[in-house]
Amino acid sequence: MLTNEDLSKAPHAFTIACMHQHVAIEWGAFLYKSRTMAKAECDALNEADDQLDQAGHWQVIEYGRPMFVDETCRQV
Fold first, then answer.
1. Count of CB atoms within 10 A of residue 50's CB?
2. Which residues of the chain have pLDDT under 70?
3. CA distance linking residue 26 with residue 44, whole number of Å
4. pTM above 0.90, yes or no
5. pLDDT at residue number 74
6. How far is residue 72 from each of residues 15, 58, 64, 66, measured CA to CA in Å?
7. Of 34, 26, 21, nearest to 63 (Cα)?
8. Could you tell me if 25 and 61 are in contact, meaning their C-beta atoms sit under 8 angstroms apart?
9. N or C terminus: fewer CB in 10 A for the chain?
10. 3-state SS of the chain?
11. pLDDT value at residue 41
């Protein structure tokens, strides 16, 4: 069984999404290894969208970590 220490070693992955009224209307095509790189991309896209008066706001989205289920929890 995996411990919390094992799970904390799982890599983070980030992407970006254009949110409008709490709904993702567009997703970025790339995964980023750091939040800083993803945030820089969001800032650039938001600046360009502001000039074009586009709806929505680009935000960093963190991909979920894998969830491991114990064998005893499986239903047959």
1. 10
2. 1-11, 64-76
3. 15
4. no
5. 45
6. 34, 41, 23, 18
7. 34
8. no
9. C
10. CCCHHHHHCCCCCEEEEEEECCEEEEECCCCECCHHHHHHHHHHHHHHHHHHCCCCEEEEEECCCCCCCCHHHCCC
11. 92
